[in-house]
Specification:
The structure is a single chain. The protein has 162 residues and is mostly beta strands. Helices cover 10% and strands 56% of the residues. The chain is built from 1 helix and 10 strands; from the N terminus they run αββββββββββ. A 10-stranded antiparallel beta sheet has the order 4-3-2-1-10-9-8-7-6-5, with no helix packed on it.
């Protein structure tokens, strides 16, 4: 063991502490997106659609899965959708709007990228979302692109934690 330095107890504890801090605050740490989130229309860009009277997204996030339940109220009607995805990129099948859909989710640093695709009588709808949690954990923003009939419709959905 000539030329090798033996670490003392203090050095080992310091290394362990730095390692734990790196996991807790590093760029690769994954935020917990769980909560009930209410759309903040004033900070959102809904593209061509009119804002609903109410839009709530409830997120149940426990790695490696995330369940998103969306409830919109429009003209006195409630529209509800729910799906569960694995956050490792695995494609999953589920029902959305009365049609079979496929979706996947995976992390890009601290951003959860969600992709869904479904066939409707009018054509295929693809939706890509990038979910970002604010540093204070009070705002969840979805940068959304909906592709339909070859057209991309960008939206920015800003939700406040309830």
């Amino acid at each position: 063991m000539e030329g090798m330095k033996v670490l003392n107890r203090r050095d080992v504890l310091a290394l362990a502490g730095w390692s734990a801090l790196g996991r807790a605050f590093g760029a690769d740490s994954r935020p917990d997106l769980s909560g009930e989130w209410l759309l903040d229309v004033s900070r959102s860009d809904l593209g061509p659609q009119a804002p609903p009277e109410r839009w709530v997204r409830t997120v149940a996030h426990k790695e490696p899965t995330v369940t998103i339940t969306t409830l919109q109220e429009r003209r006195g009607q409630q529209l509800k959708a729910e799906f569960t995805l694995r956050t490792d990129g695995t494609e999953t099948k589920f029902q959305m709007g009365g049609s079979e859909a496929t979706g996947s989710a995976q992390w890009d640093g601290r951003v959860l990228v969600i992709r869904t695709k479904r066939a409707t009588p009018a054509g295929t709808i693809e939706q890509n979302e990038r979910a970002t949690l604010s540093e204070d954990g009070k705002t969840l923003t979805f940068a959304v692109t909906i592709r339909y009939e070859g057209n991309d419709v960008p939206m920015r959905l800003v939700f406040a934690k309830r």
